[in-house]
Amino acid sequence: MSDSILVTIDDGLARVTLNRPGSLNAMDFEMAERWRDAARTATAPGVGAVILDAAGPAFCAGGDVVAMATSGAAGADLTATAHVIHEGIRTFVEAPVPVVAAVQGAVAGGGLGLMLTADYIVASEASRFVSKYANIGLTPDLGVSTLLPAAIGQRRALQLLLQDRSLSAAEALEWGLVAEVVPAASVAARAEEVARFWLDNATAAFGQAARLVRTGAQRTFAENLDDEARTIGAAFDTADAKARVAAFAAASSKPRA
Fold first, then answer.
1. What integer pLDDT is reported at residue 1 of this predicted model?
2. Residue 257: predicted pLDDT
3. Domain 5-200: top CATH class
4. Which of 160, 216, 251, 255 is the most buried (most CB within 10 A)?
5. How does pLDDT run across 88-124, given as a tens digit for each residue?
6. Burial 98-126 (b: 16+ CB within 10 A, else e)
7. Which residues, other chains included, contact 91 with Cβ-Cβ below 8 Å and sequence gap of 6+?
8. CA-only gyration radius of the chain, Å
9. Model confidence over 66-90: pLDDT tens digits?
10. C-alpha dihedral, 121 to 108 to 145 to 191, nearest 10°
11. What number of CA atoms fall less than 13 Å from residue 207's CA on the CB side?
12. What is d(CA 156, CA 149) in angstroms, rounded to the nearest whole number?
């Protein structure tokens, strides 16, 4: 079995690690199926939070252009592979499980889409973010045409896609592409701290909040309101919410000095 993507689950915390450091974690054809399967495993019942990280000096250089050029693949093969990877992306984005990404080094092309499956992104000070699709005559995939403008706005997304522009970590933070920028040595620890915060608190509610925000842009306002109503009602009936609501009410009713 390939180890191009590693998945571990420990006490409700799933870790998905891109593991082709020699290729800057670029996605090849085989890795596509690993990504889809990893997403399904990492968002299965019993998982309360996910850390998405990568081995080596880069987070993900996008698609493996060398493999595309030397495999004899046709456009139909790329389309089929993209569909497989997209299944994994949809699984992460639509699942009620919060995801934090720990990002280091380069994030290019489709790597932006993989990164943006996360609800919270912690980036190294040395990270760099670039499109490069049009530079090799290709167009955005892996959710980039949707997830990128959702994160930073349409105009800025077009700046990144239509110019040979690289964003520094500081610029990515200013644009809203990432949530935090920390020293490289602190990225892994900070990402785990975020995930542990979710697990130690109302992780199911955090996951549903992320799902509502992520899927809301694709539906009508009325559909979103219906989903919100159903979701908060279902949450209210859980033992966790009942205990937290009762504790909040009790604390609020205490007389203040």
1. 46
2. 59
3. alpha beta
4. 160
5. 999 999 999 999 999 999 999 999 999 999 999 999 9
6. bbbbbbbbbbbbbbbbbbbbbbbbbbbbe
7. 36, 39, 40, 43
8. 19
9. 877 788 778 888 889 899 999 999 9
10. -10
11. 25
12. 7
Q: Are 81 and 43 in contact (CB under 8 A)?
A: no
The pair of structure tokens assigned to 25 is 């974690």
Domain range list for the chain: 5-200, 203-253
Over the stretch 207-240, which tens digit does the pLDDT of each residue have?
999 999 998 888 899 999 999 999 999 999 999 9
Write the DSSP string, the chain: ---SEEEEEETTEEEEEE--GGGTT-B-HHHHHHHHHHHHHHTSTT--EEEEEESSS-SB-SB-HHHHHHS---HHHHHHHHHHHHHHHHHHHHSSS-EEEEE-SEEETHHHHHHTTSSEEEEETT-EEE--TGGGT----TTHHHHHHHHH-HHHHHHHHHS--EEEHHHHHHHTS-SEEE-GGGHHHHHHHHHHHHHHS-HHHHHHHHHHHHHHTTS-HHHHHHHHHHHHHHHHTSHHHHHHHHHHHHHHHSPP-
Q: Cα 88–94–99 angle (5° rounding)?
A: 75
Q: CB-based burial of residue 191 (10 Å sphere; 0-12 exposed, 13-18 middle, 19+ buried)?
A: buried
Residue with tokens 């009325």: 222
